[in-house]
Amino acid sequence: MMKFIKINILPYVVYAIYKVYMGLVRFIEPEYPVKLKGKKANFIVAHFHQDELALVHQRTNSNFCTMTSTSTDGEMMTRFLKLMGYRSVRGSSTRGGATALLQMIKQCSAQKLNPVIAVDGPRGPIYKVKNGVIELAKQTGFPILPVALNYSSAFCIQKSWNKALIPKPFSKVTIRFGEPIHVPNNADRAKIEGIKNLLEKELLSLKGL
User: Fold this and answer.
1) Domain with 92 in it
2) How many distinct structural domains can be found in the chain?
3) By Cβ atoms counted within 10 A, which residue in 23, 104, 155, 189 is the most buried?
4) Alpha helices by DSSP H, the chain
């Protein structure tokens, strides 16, 4: 019964509450970097898991694709994201990750979708970039766009590994973009490690950490 409620009812309840709640928050977003050649260019949104709850609101009904887990909670999230206008690929680095990454590479390349990746997910450690986003950029040829959110006031879920942030009602959320990062299709292990460190430092800098 609980599984039925999670999958078939809860996504709609969460969607309704989320839309009303985020409508009370003011989002400030700059133009995309010139190097992306405008909003029609394909790219990979790379962000820390901590910013996910607020960032979802700014990419509704667009050509963005996310990765969700294969669990019941993942199915609930997939349905919620579908209501928000996202496409989803099922899997994670801990369950079906390799298959999901290949599927995302194929789907995003064929349909020209923009992947959205929480680079330190799904279980952390917090603020540590993993290899998935680099491999995705290498295989698709899409540049990585570092994205971070700064909050004027937010609730922090201290018990969660990612210290998830929820903007408070009537607060301001400023979205910040870093410089696009390109991954050569012939990048070796050392090059990938260097790009991973560069992305991590850029995201930390954007968040002021």
Assistant:
1) 2-207
2) 1
3) 104
4) 2-8, 10-22, 52-55, 72-83, 97-111, 132-140, 189-207
